[in-house]
Prior knowledge:
Blueprint: H1 6-23, E1 40-44, E2 56-61, E3 65-67, H2 70-73, E4 75-77, E5 85-89, E6 92-96, E7 106-112, E8 115-117, E9 127-132, E10 140-148, E11 159-163, H3 170-173, E12 178-181, E13 187-193, E14 199-203, E15 219-221, E16 229-240, E17 246-258, E18 262-266, E19 276-283, E20 286-291, E21 300-303, E22 314-318, E23 324-329, H4 332-335, E24 339-349, E25 355-365, H5 376-381, E26 392-394, E27 399-400, E28 406-410, E29 414-417, E30 422-428, E31 431-434, E32 439-444, E33 448-455, E34 463-468, E35 473-475, E36 484-490, E37 497-504, E38 510-515, E39 521-526, E40 531-537, E41 540-548, E42 570-572, E43 577-579, E44 584-590, H6 596-599
Parallel strand pairs: 10-18, 27-36, 37-44
Antiparallel strand pairs: 1-2, 2-6, 3-8, 4-7, 5-6, 7-9, 10-13, 11-12, 11-14, 14-15, 16-17, 19-20, 20-23, 21-24, 22-23, 24-25, 26-28, 28-33, 29-35, 30-31, 30-34, 32-33, 34-36, 37-40, 38-39, 38-41, 41-42, 41-43
Amino acid sequence: MNRKHFPYYIVAVVMACLLYACANPGNPSGGPVDKSAPIFVNSSPRPNELNVDAHRINLYFDEVVNVKDPTTKVIVSPAQVERPKISTSGRRVTVELFDTLKENTTYTIDFSNAIRDNNEDNPIENFAFAFSTGDRLDTLRVSGYVFDAYTLEPQQNVIVGLHSNLSDTAFTKLRLERVARTNDRGQFTVRNIAPGKYHIFALNDLDGDYKFSSPLENLAFLDSIVVPEVSMKEVTDTIYNEKNEVDTLINRQRAQYYPNDILLSMFAEDFKQQYLADNKRQDSTRIYLRFAAPSDTLPTLTLLNKPDAPADWYTLERTKTNDTLTYWIRPPHLISSDTLLVALNYLRTDSLNQLSPQNDTLRFTFQRPKPKKRKKDDEEADSVPAINFLSLGAVTSSTQEVYAPVLFASTTPLDKFDKSAIHLQQMADTLWVDVPDCTVAWRDSTMDRRTISVRHSWTPGGSYRLMVDSLAMTDIYGVFNKPWTSEFKVRAIEEYGNLIFNIAGIDGKAFVELLNASDEVVLRAPVRNGKAELINLLPSKYYARLVMDANGNGKFDTGNYAEGLQPEECFYYPGMINLKKNWDIEQTWDIFATPVDKQKPEAIKKNKPEKKKWEETPKPTENEGEEELDEFGNPYDPNNPYYGNQNNRNNFGF
């Protein structure tokens, strides 16, 4: 290369690079994510304007907006008979009211968080607009929370309303006067209330009439009268400079509205519409009925096309609440019949929500499979008739819990069994030794004629063998069993953990429900002398709920508005307990130490606040959500083979 021309080559290379860069532009970054909510700038009529007679309200914002789920989020107070029309156009939101405006009345349009920007879906939280048709604007307000009485789940988008008519029948006969909706945290604020005395209610208004008109609607009511009031309180506002440093402190008066801590416990009354939900012939031997609600009475079945059928033509298998029924057909000529006509008499909910007798005629058919073509070898084999035996099988697993009975069952209902032909043995050294003090009985002969229970004071870690002799059991078709054996081992006591709650604040009867990660009940234990003992638990993550058992029946009881009966109070232990094997945890629990809206752990809460579009889902960590007890600081081991294997003791009637 000629050194004389070297500088020219350098210039050429640089120019080529610049031209390449210009020909390949990159994508613009688009700037930072917009996390700001739209800003209200103007309206017609103006906010809080008096003597308004317009049915159309226009609201203007600083950017293009949308209204999300207006039918479930937006509410107008006083409650409207005809639903308002809500529309958007660019930066404008329009509300059209079709009801006749009442004279001298303050109107509130509560948007909750429905108004959002068009790009990032950022909502304006708790936005409401008010005006008056008279020369005065009512300004009082009340606020609080609505929770499910049993699960303490925040009740989202339910109506909360007031009645100045203090009659007990106002809630069932008259539309609520001042109304609001709860947000995604179960919070509510009823605004623009006139001075006076009120009853307050929450309602899952299924028919949109703003009153408790159906027993299927969930509700809540406060026993005491609500008197809205306001007081002025001095607050300090802080002004920051461009460097985010405190620049100025300004003291000013701010209105504080009361009451602002109303707690409404929402419940469903103990009512379900009763009707026949499903019916079918499962096979040639079984008729299946499923009802929509529990019942304390059983239906009656009458065969119409088989007058020669005996009175005991079936054996009934039922659930505890009589909502699922299986009728095992007994006579062979009925089993072989392709069609059975059955007259069914039962109690059904009528149009007045009362139980009344109902008669239905049901046709049960069974399509039998076509017989297969038989080979000559099969015909020769059939010359020796095959013997059908009653099939038995274990219900419980091969690892037996120390607190539970052993269960085994037949495939068909039993007519009888011989207790003396059922034997339990325990392994001693290398020999099986008879256990003479076991108890053998039906699990529950009134509900299930197939399952047998074997109870014994099990030796932790012991090995056992259950043996059933031939001919020990006979089913309703006269089929008997052949010998059957099942071996199992009882779990060692070291594989369990124990949990004891020392509970403060209890005045009366109560019980504790131990919950799994799905908020389902694993075990119940009564509170005695301020203690609830939950013994022999498999290692897992647990939560706990306490029920104030007012009537002492060992279950949660709901409320009833007509009787003025509130649901039983419930409390959640505010943390998670990570129980490990061979650990005993004793924990103090003051049920009133944590506010109700903070009690239920987020990990098991189902009704969670809406997540903003730009929020990232945090990556799970090893111990995310754990609230380890200080005195048991071992890290949770996700490889623990016993995690999540806790048997539900309620399945065994404990």
